Amino acid sequence: MDISRKEFIKLNALVAAGLPFIKLSRLNASADEIESLYGGFTSPPNAAKPFVRWWWNGNKVTKDEIVRELDLMKEAGIGGVEINSIKFPSNADAMGIPSHEWLSPEWIEMVETTVSAAEKRGITCDIIVGSGWPFGGRFLDKNEQTQLMTFGTKKLQGPQTKQFSRSDLLDSIELELHSKNEDLIKELVFLRLAPARMEKFTMGEDLSAKLNGDNITIEVPNGEYVLYYMVKFTGFQAVINGAPGADGPVLNHYNKDAVEKYLGRMSDNMESQMEGLGESFRAMFCDSLELEGANWTDDMLEEFERRRGYSLYPYLPFVLFKTGHMGNPVDDSGGSELTQTVQETIDSVRYDFYKTRLELFNERFIQTFNDWCHEHNVESRVQAYGRGFHPIESSMEIDIPECETWLRSTIGGIISKKLVCREEPILWSINLFPQVQDWLGIN
């Protein structure tokens, strides 16, 4: 029999769908039971229908277009939408449609229209918190913005008197970021002089007291040394694809007060103009936690000592990695040469530092987000993966945990298709296997 690949896939799908009926018939199921199961395939419940991510590009939306697209999605068998404000594509035509700022009265009116129209059509609504990823906005105070601690090194030969300018040390460290926030703060916070070869662990000479002026003068003893200087970046990352009103610096997810204030800003504004979140949405969504290496908060040293029973301070900056693109560690050969024993000590403390960060992230972001969702009678929905999340516990905390990809790029991923958006630049997407993409004719 000559059969095409597309026809073969369709036949396989039909066979798989028929397997439950074969099992039922062997169990002497009644005709009503079989008919009921068959009806579940022909008219599936809403929870069994696909949900789509509904991108409101640049928040350039109108009531008429929202309703029109909901009608088309219902006709296509879509069971739910995730309202997702996002940056307008730079290469797209805005068609003269104005943007609504996130949480503005006009934007909330569009959301209210969506919720009402979706309910009438039996479509479930989720909504992303903030815009793009991760959470953030220009309205954040500096102490609410994400922080990263990193370091630089300079090899020195003594004896000599060496002078450095504060600006030269700060300028020597730049982060290779995917999404850089230009309005950032760089602070020189620690200064250490350590042996170039370390036989046993030593924090070296603490020179932090010399950081008061613009010029830093140090005395290098006889021998080979490494000057370690630590730099804290605040507000270094910008929200990736943030829409108007929720773009700008990223939130410090290790700061519980900042997280609560951010979430409260959304719920307070929305519930002042529309029904409670629980009457409007199934879940509040948190997209990827691509924090570009964020690893610090103002009370990190205090929390580490309280939780681990010893001070992290002597082991800084040795437990840190230099940070590259998307927070990936950068190989660095500029530091002290360590014996295996010293390296094992550093690795042990580094483990404790990472464990402390996971605990703080879980308590101050994940649990805070969960509590806020439940307080407002909605489920928490999070892409609970990445460096900030514990690989098991984080997902167990979330009501609807999810990820972004499957086993590898060739097996699955996110596709986007401009299917119905003739009048306005709103984009919606769905996760599909490549075979299903081919079946549906989506390229």
Q: Strand content of the residues, in percent? A: 15-25%
Rg, Cα atoms, Å = 27 Å
- Oligomeric nature of the chains: single chain
As a percent range, the share of helical residues equals 25-40%
DSSP helical segment count: 11
Which sequence of strands runs across the widest sheet? 14-13-9-3-2-1-16-15
> Which secondary-structure class do the elements indicate?
alpha/beta
Observed structural traits:
disordered C terminus; eight-stranded mixed sheet; alpha/beta
Describe the structure.
By secondary structure, the protein is of the alpha/beta class. Helices cover 33% and strands 23% of the residues. The chain has eleven helices and 16 strands. It has helices at residues 5-26, 31-42, 63-75, 105-120, 166-171, 256-271, 277-280, 300-308, 340-375, 393-397, 434-440, and strands at residues 51-57, 80-86, 124-128, 147-165, 185-195, 197-198, 205-206, 215-234, 283-286, 322-323, 329-330, 337-338, 379-383, 400-402, 414-417, 426-431. The strands form four sheets. It has an eight-stranded mixed sheet with strand order 14-13-9-3-2-1-16-15. The chain has a four-stranded antiparallel sheet with strand order 4-8-5-7. A hairpin with a 5-residue loop joins β10 (322-323) and β11. The radius of gyration is 27 Å and the shape is elongated. The model is unreliable at 411-443 (pLDDT under 50).
